[in-house]
Design a protein that fits this description.
Blueprint lengths: L1 H26 L7 H4 L4 H40 L8 E10 L13 E9 L9 E5 H6 L10 E5 L6 H19 L4 E6 L11 E5 L2 E6 L2 E6 L8 H23 L12 H13 L3 H10 L6 H4 L19 H12 L1
Parallel strand pairs: 1-5, 3-4, 5-8
Antiparallel strand pairs: 1-2, 2-3, 6-7, 7-8
Helix pairs in contact: 6-7, 6-8
Amino acid sequence: AAAAAAAESEAAAAGSAQREEQQKKEDAPQQGPLLFDLLPPNPEAWRLAMLAQQQARRQTKQERARKEEERNALPMKSLPKIFVGFSLERVYYMLDTTWQFQARTDGQTPPEERLWLTLCCNAAGTHKLKPFVIGSLLACLVMDKLPHSDDLSLHFNERAWLSGALFEKFLQQLHMEAHEIHGDAPICLVITHTRCHKVPPGCVPFESHGLSGFSYRNIHVIVMPAKTLKVFKPLNDEITSTVKGTLDATREKLVKHPVMVPLCKVTMAQCLPWLAYAWDTLRPSSVRQAWKKCKIKTPPGWDKFKAKRQKGPRPQRIPAPVVKMQLDAGVQGFW
């Protein structure tokens, strides 16, 4: 009994000492973990595991870069095979862009007004479609008289952008204008992948050499994959710099005129006649040079192309917009 009592007292003393030590640890100020607490029990296995994880991440990045390179190289490999059945004059490229026609002056911020421009021409530069212009429906309601021009195709909707119905109208316009030049011969249209380029009803989808598209009457539309816009970057830069540069220069000439300074506003009716002139300033030779800069391996017959000289009188170029006449008409209407 004495021995049992002694053992019980020793166990109680040890338990109380352990509780006191735990209480001291809890009452002590919190300190960060020491270095030897962070080290794994097996440093060599930990090092090998970290090296394997880094190698897996490196392989994932390399695989992602390889897929991106293959996606960008797909048009370079597929387009020359598709273009074999078409001549240089029967391959068209379509470009969508916007232009801000409201002049911004110091101290004033007019409401943003824009025009959606859909521009299309063939690779030879000999046939340029009428500019497909889309304006805001609100701006159309403000104008007293809807402007009409035979040199451009004007449309309106609420958001001033290319919807699916207007895209079908653009294809109809391309079919009509191309039929006058090429007859029933098929043509190829290259467009970029955007959500506004919806397939019209009744079209036949197809896939050729890894690229998808659809057929609309005698038009074979090739839809470029996403993130491949930089393939045609030289062509886009050439078209946008020429057209928008001419439009901006004409707008600045109108805004800086002393009669126009107090108005500080350019209307849609004033800038619409400029579009046909700006599109007419794009030279066919510039289009062909831009196609070469795209570094797409073209079929053999394309390099030997020479523009045919048209018999008879030369077609009259669209005259430059007369700013003085627009100023007089605008000021009289304003006052």
